[in-house]
Amino acid sequence: MGLWNIDAGLINKQYIPNLKLVDGRTINTEVSTLYNDNQGGMWLGTLDRGILYYHPNRFRFQNIGNSLFPTAKDVNISVTCFTTDKKNILVGTKKGLFYYTLADGNLISYSQELSTVHCNVLLKDSQQRIWLGTTGQGLVCIMPNGIIKQNILPGHTIRSAIELSDGTLYLCIDNQGFGRFIPTTEKFEKVAEVPEISSFTVYQLIPYEKRLPSRYRAKRLFIYNYKKGKNTVFSLLPIHVILF
Q1: What is the pLDDT along the chain (244 residues), one digit of tens a residue?
Q2: If you write DSSP's letter for every residue of 160-176 in order, what string do you get?
Q3: DSSP letters of 204-223?
């Protein structure tokens, strides 16, 4: 429940159990994901309270609740991921992909073909392609011209996706650890240098160039040097990987 605020050095931390809304209400809910847009705003996806939006000039959260999603009233919307598409926000949920228009505050279904997909991760890459990782339906690519390419890595569950500075994509796939994805060939190459987790489920990848404090390296994370193909630490489950 709530949020943790941790500084850039991963040392000082603050737990925020309750979130204050602009209308004065306070809510307590599980935060599933967060996204920082290029306007300084922070978008929080929740388990059962829709979207929370925070801007530092306002100091409180705006709630974009479940009732604003164009779904049946009895459907619980669990928000799992965000990214920016042009000037608006793409919202991934367990009940489909949606489009939030910043100009008028409307939520609409992104497309009929993605209206029921279980979304796990959204990534906008340097080529302006949007990658959507799903549960059981593999990877979806939304091209800059709006064309949707489905059935990439069909049948797989994609938990996390990142792009490194050289343009390489890395994916986490259920029960396959993590590995490189080549967009031009649409092939996934499992990282063979890390046999300890090759059949495990990795839930998150984070690119990081600085050295981590020893207590985090030893207890929390698995660290992989993608340039040298070497790993340095194996962590407790669930597994989160830092690439450097």
Answers
A1: 677 777 777 688 888 777 778 777 887 788 889 898 888 888 989 888 889 888 776 667 888 888 888 886 777 889 999 999 888 999 999 999 999 998 888 899 999 999 999 999 999 999 999 999 999 999 999 999 999 999 899 889 999 999 988 788 999 899 888 888 988 888 888 876 566 666 778 888 877 665 544 434 334 456 666 666 655 544 444 544 444 4
A2: EEEE-TTS-EEEEETTS
A3: EEEE--SPPPHHHHHHT-EE
DSSP 90: E
Residue 108, classed as helix, strand or coil, is strand
Phi, psi at residue 196, to the nearest 5°?
-60, -30
Specify the pTM: 0.82
Sign of the Cα torsion 55, 56, 57, 62 reads positive
69/47 Cα distance (integer angstroms): 14
CB atoms within 10 A of CB 193: 13
Dihedral sign, Cα of residue 12, residue 37, residue 100, residue 116: negative
Q: Quick check: 180 and 169 in contact, CB under 8 A?
A: yes
**Contact of 13 with 5, CB cutoff 8 Å:** yes
Q: Supply the DSSP string of 134-169, one letter for each residue.
A: ESSS-EEEE-TTS-EEEEESTT--EEEEEE-TTS-E
Cis peptide before 70 (omega within 30 of 0): no
Judge whether 133 and 121 are in contact, CB under 8 Å.
yes
